[in-house]
Amino acid sequence: YVIVTNNDLSDTTGYPNNWSDLIFHRQQHDFLSGCIVTIEEINSCFDYYNETTIFNDSASHLREFCKDAYLDWNTEYILLGGSWQTNLESRQIVPCRIMTDRYEGSSYDSMPSDLYFSNLDGDWYYSPGNMWGGGRYGANDKLSELLVGRIPVWNAEMVSNVIQKIIWYDNCNNETFLRSSGFLGGDLGWTSTSKQYMEEIRVGNGSFSEYDGFEEWNTEFPDYEINTLGRYYDADYSTESDAVNAWKNAINNNELCLISHLDHGSYSNTLSLGSGSTLSNSNFFLGTSQACLSGRYTSGTSGASTFLAESEDQGAFAMVLNTGYGYGSSSSTAGKSQLQHKIFWDYFYANQTTSFDNWRLGQAMQYTKDMFSSYIDSYSHVYSYVWYSWNLFGDPAQKIRLNAIENTAPVVVSASPTNASINVSINQFSLSVFVYDLNGNKLNWTIETSPDIGNSSGLNESYGEKTCSINELDYITEYTWFVNVSDGTFWTNETFTFTSEIDLNNNKPVIGIPIPVNNSSSIDVWMQNVSSFIQDPDGDNFSYSIEGLYISDSINISQSNGTKTANCTTPLPFDTNITWFVNVSDHRTYSVNEFFVFTTRQQYIPGIPFGFNAVTVNRTAISLNWTKNSSTDKTIVERNSIPSWDIGEGIVVYNGSNNTMVDNSLLPGINYYYQVWGWNATDTVISDNFSSINSVTDNNSFVSFSNSNPVNASINCSLNLTWSIDLSDADGDYFDWNISINSIYNSSTHDVNGSKTILLTNLSYYTVYTIWVNATDGFNQTNEWFQFKTKLPTDFDAPRISSVSINSTNSLEDSTSYPWKHISCNVIDNFRVANVSMNVTFADNSTSNLTLTQIDNTNTWVLNTNLSFMGNSSVIFFATDLNGNMNHESIELFSLNSSINMNSEHDSLDYGNLPTDIYSLEFNVFNISGQFFNYSVVTIPNIGSASGSFSDNGSIIIPVSDISYETIYEWRITFEYDITNFVSTFTFTTEDAPDDNGNLGGSGSSSGFLPPETPAESEGDDNLPPETPFSPQGLANVEMGKMQTYTVSSWDKNNDTIRFQMDWGDGRMSDWSDFVSSNESVNFTHIFADDINLNIRVRA
User: Is residue 795 one of the residues assigned to a domain?
Assistant: First the structure.
C-alpha cells in the first residue's frame, strides 16, 4: 500500500491527521504494510528518466515508479495524494496523464485518466495522432495491474479532512446507515428519464440485464438487505428543484450511504448540489455519478475535492466521477456511462457475493474498467471516452461495508511470572504471555515494563507465546508490565505486576531525631518544615518519603545517610494534632516506616476596639478616636452612607496602628457612618465584630441671586444694554460664576460677593431673550434664568397681499354649487404680520369670517375648508402687522357651469359610470368683475386640453378622444386674473368594458400551431391588430438539455385581450397561449437539444 504525494504534504502538522495516520490505519485495520513516496523522490530517480522527451515528464516518471512498486514491492494499492490543476502551479501536487479521444468533436475531447498508472503495459502514446490514449483503436492497455485511486488535495487541512472521513467510515457501526442507498435523478430533457436509468440500476434489469442490481442482491441475500427507499427523481416532483432539495435533505439527515446519481453536471456542480457547501451531514457517503465533468480537477475546484476534502464534518468519504463527459441515450437507457455504472455495482452484488474482504473500491474499479475495456474498440468512440473519463476519487483499499463490526477482541492468558507474584528472583530473564484471537485475525502486540527493564513487540503475527527479555532487576521492587494486543479492530490491554526477592543478608535503615520532637505542643502555624535523621547501617543508598496531611510530600531516591526534610503547607491549622510519616527502603529488604505527632498553637484573635468617638470639625472634616483591644496590631476604619455593613463594603479611611485620625474632604451637611475593626498581622485575622459611630458635617450656604437689571420679564427693552445681577455667598466662600445668553458669555472664577454684568448689543426687535446665571462655591450650585423682551421697530406701512389662490373640487351632478378645498395668499410686511383673515359675502348676502394660518414663518398663509358656494360671491382678504397697520384686497369670484357632450342620446348620466362616446367637455364662465382672464384646461389621463389668454365670459369647449373603459378621469380648470388664481377640479368614471363571449381558447386545429379564433367583434367596430410584441426576455446563452423560460408581452390599442405563439428556431413551435389582458406578460418554456446559434421569435 503506497501513498504518492509531494514533499509539502508528506508529513503535515497543525491538523488532526496526515498521510502517516492513514498508513498506520491501513496497517492496523487491514494488515497492509505501507509507505509514503514523494513525487520529488520519484523525479530525482535516474532509473525513471527516458531519452525521448515525450516519455520524460513527471507523469512518465510516476508510471515507471508504479511498475517498480508492482514488480519489486508486490504493491497492490496506490493512492495518488494530490491534485493537478493545469493553470495553477500551487495546486500541481501529483501529476496526471491527459487522455485524448480523437473522435470526440467537443472542446472536452481530453480529460485526466488514472488508467495510465493502473494499466502498466505499453506506453499509451498514440503516435499517428501525437496524443495520449487516442480513443477507439488507440494505444490503450485494456487490463490493469494496480488498484489506483486519487484524492485531489493541495494543502494540509484538506489531507486531514479526507483521512478523518475515511477512518470514520471504516469504524462506523451504524448498520442502518451502512445499508442505506440513494438513487438521484435530475431533469435530463430527454425522452428517456433519469428515473428510468436509476430504476434500472436499482432493480437490475433493462438494456444490460446481465448485470445485477440492488433488488436482485436483496432477493438473494436477505440477511444483508440494502434499504432502497431513497429514490428522488425529477419525474416524481413538481419541479427539479423540489427533487434536488429532497435528496439534499436526505443526505443531511444521514439517510443515504451508497449513492447513484444521474443529471447534467459540471466541475462546479456535483450531484446537482453545486460544490456541496450547503450539506450538513455527519455520516459520510460514497457518491457515484454519471454527470458530466464533476470530477474534472484539472480545471479547478471540482466535486472530487470539495465533497471529499473541503470540510472535516460533511460530504463524502469517496466519489466516482467523470473528468470528461458522461454519455447517455436520449431515447433509451442504453447509455455508455450507464453500462459502466452497472458493472461497478455488479462487482459487489454478483461477482463477490458475501466475500466482504474483497469489497474494496480499488477492486471494484479494476473489475469495472477491465470488463468495460472489451467495448472500447466498438463502433462508437463514446465507449472509449467514458472509459477514460470515469475515475475513482478515494482510497482504493477502502472496503464497502454492509454490517457492523462483529469482531471479538484478542485474548491474553498464561502470564509468566503470574500476576502479583512475590519473591521473584532478581535473575529472572524474561516475561511471557500466550495470545490468540477467536476470529483468527493476525495480531499486533507490544510488551512494556515500568520501571523499564525491557520491551518487545510484533506486527501481523499469528497466535502463540510472546516474550520480552528483561535484565537488571533490583531487590524488593514492584515491577509492572503491560501487554497490548490488537486484531486491527479491537485492542486488548492487560496489566501484570510482580515483586522481586529481598536480600536476606541486609540490615534495615534506621529513622530518628524528628523535628519537631514527637508529641510536641504549641507549635507555630508558620513552621516551614519537618525533618528526621535517616541512617543505613550497611551504608547502602536508600529511597525515602516524608508525607502527611499539611506536609508537602518529599520523595527522593538514591540518598545517603543524613537529615531529610519536607516542607509544611503554611499556615498550618490552629490548635490541631498533625501526624507525619517517614518511609525508607534500601531496596534490599522490607521498608521501614515511622510516624510522629505535634500540636499547633491556638489562633490570635484581636479584640473589638472600644471607646469609638466622632467629633465634627467643620463642613468638610470629622475627627475620630478609639482604644485598641488585645491581640490587635492595626485598626481598620471604614466610612459609608448606611448605618451597618460588612467589612470591605465601605470606604477604607484608615488602616494603621494609631488611635486617632481626621477624615477630610467630606461634603457639607452629610451624615457619615463609621465602623472600626481590630486586625492581627501575625495570623492575618480581623476582629469578630466592630464598633460604630456617626456624625454630621456642618451645612453650607448656597450662592444667592438678587436685583437683576432689567428686572425679570421686562418688555420694550433697548437693543443695546448692560444686564446685571447681584451674587452673594453668606459663608464668605469664593465662588465661580457665569452668565450666558445665546452665544454671548461672561464668567469669573474665585470671585467674591458683588454685581456681575454682561454687555448685550445689536439685539433683535420684538424678541424674548433668556439669560442663564450659574454659580458654585465648590459645595453647592445655584442656577436661575431671567427673561426680557426688546421693543418693536417703528413702522407705519401696512402689509401687502398678493398671489391669492383658490382651489375647489366640483360635482358634475350639481354644477351650480362647488366646495372650496384650499385657499392661500402671500402677505409681506416691513417687520412681521400679526394675522390674516378673509370675509366672504355669499349670493344671499350672508357673510362668514375665516382666519388663515401662516406656514413655517414664510410669507404664505393658508386655509383648508369645505365652504360650498352657489351663485355669485365676493371675498375680502385682511392683513394686520404687529404695529396695528392693516390692508385688504377684494376679489370677485367666478360663476362656473360644466357639461359633458356625448355622441349618442342618453336618458340620464351617471358620472360614476359614464358611456365612452364622449366627444367634448364644456364650461360656461361668468366673471363677476367683468375683467378679462387667462385660463387652461388639462385632463388626467390625457384625453384633451385647452388654454386661452385675455378671455371674456362665455362658453369654453374642449374636444376629447380615446376614452377608455373603467377609468377615473380628472378634469382641471385654472383661471388667472389680477392677483388671483382659481383652480376647479371635476372627476368622472367610465363604464366597465363589455363581456368577451367569443373564443374560449381552442388551439384552432389538432396540430396546435394555427392562430386561435379571436373574440367576436361588434358590427361596425374599427378593430386594430395588437402592437408588435417586445423581444422575448430570457437567457441568451443556455445549457443543452436544461429547461429555459422566456417572458413575452404586448398591448392592444382597442384594449382587447391577446394571445402569443413562439417560434423556437429549431423547427419547433409552441401552442398558442390563453388570452390575457393587454400589457400582461406570458411565460413560455423550452429545452434546446443542440449546441448551435438560434433566432427565436414571438407573434401576438
Answer: no
